[in-house]
Design brief:
By secondary structure, the protein is of the alpha/beta class. The protein has helices at 17-28, 35-49, 56-64, 95-105, 108-121, 134-138, 152-165, 172-188, 210-225; strands at residues 7-10, 31-34, 68-72, 80-83, 86-87, 127-131, 144-149, 201-204. The chain starts with 6 loop residues before the first strand and ends with a helix. Bound molecules: 2'-deoxycytidine-5'-monophosphate.
Amino acid sequence: MSRVPNVAIDGPAGSGKSTVARLVAQKLDYLYVDTGAMYRAITHLALKTGVNLDDQDALGLLAGATKFSNVRFCSSSDVALWCNGADVTPYLRKWDVTREVARVAAVSGVRHCLVRSQRVFARSGGVVMEGRDIGTVVLPDAEFKFFLTADLDTRIERRALEISGNGRTVDPEELRRQFIYRDEMDLKRTVGPLKAAPDAVVIEGTALTVDEIVDRIVTLCRGMVA
Ligand code: DC
């Protein structure tokens, strides 16, 4: 391998991939890139500027005009993301953004622009990138690909714990509705659907702890690089 490898981690919401990807990046000393945050940022900008979410051309133009900077996806527990010189980090997990992001992420013009930016982050290698289409579309040549799954109840339970751990209240039934809706949107969209790459290692994480999943991934990566 001539350059530092890239690691692609895909999976549905609540599969634990953000936590896992962040820890894997820390252990390998790679850059962590959360691509969901970028779709969230475009959704926030669309809502803020009053772009009609049914207007796919306008959403594509908005994504094309958005320059991501001050991206600090690594080590700290929170993602930091700036768009066109402004910090959008505080808005990424807002309720309205979470509700609408799957619609925005289904727009091919938006995906086209974001995939291009994501590839730039990974150009020199040494990136752990997580999302839905990293192993299949964004980085099909990534040296390591993983696809995390877990059953729906486990995913809801993990996300509820994460939200309450951040001091916010959570309604598990609302979370269930949200997950079912977002799974459907992620799986059914024609561009970049949620799918395991044929060469991805699938990790069924229902019965595994985060540390066990991280260890498995890091061991595989180190074993292949050493
Ligand atoms: O991982 P997340 O919940 O922050 O993702 C937010 C939304 O973006 C979710 O609806 C899936 C979508 N997404 C996507 O379509 N492709 C990616 N590579 C990452 C996220």
